[in-house]
Amino acid sequence: MQLTDIPWFLMIAGMCLAHDGFARDGNPPDILSLTTDAKPAEATIEDVAWISGIWQGEAFGGLTEEIWAPPQGHAMVGMFRLVTNDQVKFYELLTIAEEGNSLVLRLKHFDPGLQGWEEKDEPVTFPLVEVSSKAAFFDGMTFRKLSADTLQISVAQRGKDGTPGRLDFEFTRGKDLTGE
Description:
There is one protein chain. This protein has one helix and ten strands. By secondary structure, it is mainly β. It has one domain (3-173): Lipocalin (Beta Barrel). β6 and β7 (135-138) form a beta hairpin. Residues 1-28 have low confidence and may be disordered. Pfam families: DUF6265.
């Protein structure tokens, strides 16, 4: 079965549930998790500034776009959208912010009418496990800078049968918002 054979809404539901229900030691090898007694990695927002930019790709049978603003105020803000058959299927609002001596990634999903999928005060949260100049490993989600113009995001998930799996999104650097 290929990524395009699975309805997008089932895959996104799996992504949402994957973080909360995933065994801490059950992630694919290059998607790291914090053990229950581990502390998040030390980092500042400048350590992940390389994520900023306009990123475009294809997934779930449609076009994907992830836009990250540069660091400001010890945080970055991003948005994701999926467009299939010229219709928005869903949005995500994301932040990466300094918390203590580390970083935490938070996200919320929204339908095309901006109705939230998660409870009002409950974002999906991914603490930082490890960071380098080309990779940021959050608990269950990995950002990798494959080249100056290629960003890969990998998310841990569980299959219907409970087996560990992953979703990989590959983005290329897009044009700026003015089309240039």
